[in-house]
Amino acid sequence: MIRPYSMTMRLFLFFIGLMAVHISHAQTLPAPGARLNYTQIMFEYEKINGAGMYVVQVAEDTPRSSFDHSLIEQRDPATATMISGFEFGRSYKWRYAALPVRQAGLTDGQPPQWRGPWHFSIDSTTTMRLQLYALTVTKNDSAHNEGGLIANDGTYTITDRRGKVVWSLPRIDWQINAARATRVTDSTVDQVMKIDIRPLILDLRLNPYGTITYLSDSDIVECDLDGNKLWEKRQCPAPSEMGENGYNHVFMRMPGGHYMTLGNEGYRKMPVHLDSIFSRKKYPWRYTFDSIEYAGVDFGTVLEYDKAGNVVWTWNSEDYFDRDGSAPKWPNMEMKAHINALGVDREDRFVYVGFKDISRIVKVEKKTGRVVDSWGEQPTVGVGPMHHAAIHTQHDAAIQDDGSIMVFNNNDHPGQDSVPGVVIFSQAPDSNGEVIWRYDCDMDPSVRAAGRTRGNVELLKNGNILVCTGSVGTIFEVTRDKKIVWEAAYKWKDFPGYKFSHMLYRAHYISSLYPCYFTFTTDRDTLTKKSPKFKITIFNKGSEEDKYEIEVSEPGEKRGTNFLDVPVMPDQSIGLESSAMEHTKPHQIVVTVHSRTNPDLMRKRVIWYE
To answer: What is the CA radius of gyration of the chain?
Structure first.
């Protein structure tokens, strides 16, 4: 028999329960008064008991506007729904209501009981207002391209396939630096002001976990859509023998939650026993920091960090080059050991590093740090196995599911009208770097002569390839039969007497601003001994498939976690039956759901047991 609680105790437990539900589950997004930096918005709202469907209305927030003439009305069975098509520089208001099960598919019945309205605005960023850059779409074959969104660091934005900005990097203290520079055109020297925008943003991407990563000058940053920093590693003062004073080129979040980037060891502490004629010859460039002598070197490093910012794995390109040879140092060098590309296989067993200046891709076994293979030109430099591959001054090292390696082949031969392009070559031991597929970016010779640096490539889900040509200034999607199905031209605007020196570096695809996103509900908020069963329904509101882990915990007991191995597709749901254990006292039951794609994405809901 359950012993009745006093009225005071029952009220106390009731309010504690309400607070727990509010803290762990209830939220309204966009938050009231929010100032957003994106136009593709996930609206989220509290559960209403008995709802068979929710309806969301959005209207422009002006003195004369009303919901009778709403801009958008959208229905969704979940407590979240994504809506696109908003405009920067506008203010909006929104509200929602529940439709009972019997009305969910109908327009008649009782009038909805609206909750809201809430107000939000979408602000243009400084770089957007200055209109210093443009991304102009010149081809958009929507029937054959992958669709979705494209992130590019040249504009600090993510755009749709029409070239319209849907997200812009916020919360940045932008600075415009101007310096007198010379520009030679047709043998005429023009004095111009060379303009740089700082911080310099590189490798901007929205990863499958729903967060943004990028390099900011030489810092590496992960943030949410609103620009709030979730993880950051600031460059340290020189010198750093791991290269942490010079992060460069690549920064990415790994599936397991770690982060990988590239560094550059520019200084090496000189041991006393090496201060000899031999070491002076090997390390002719010397620097002093805090009365300690360092040698100038130029070794690239690969760095892997955990969530706490600790280095958990590192590799130095000196391990590939002859340690007894001349330490590479620009400009007097036999080789340049600076790394400019990074790739990792799906099993996280091998890391692939690219050396643009010696036209080489090197495969490193993570467990041992040993070089197990390499491909490219100049087989006389470096240690370990070497295969020829038809690549020259390449960027990127994208590892495909079949093991082949894809690069953007800059093919930059100074003074020659050579053609850059995409090269996919085999890493099978007996193939000797056989080219499986290639595409030549046969552009206008005057454009090719402008310089070929930077660039990257990505394999899309439809089998097409997204290509960023870097300094050439184009991004395009090409099919395997070499048909361009989407193309955009990037350009910074020049004004009389001024020239902006910023260039495009990399571009990345993502299906939406919310690749990984879910909500869940329970069909009951209160359970009893006579009626202890309840149903959990998870709604995948992201644009990518996902799997989930569900945990139900009660006082003094933690049940095993349920792993739902069935993938849930976008805009689909999955249900699971559960039941409360028999107890003699009122208590709370906590339901926790984790995304398998992004374990950091977790939601809780509290159910009351009487």
So the answer is: 28
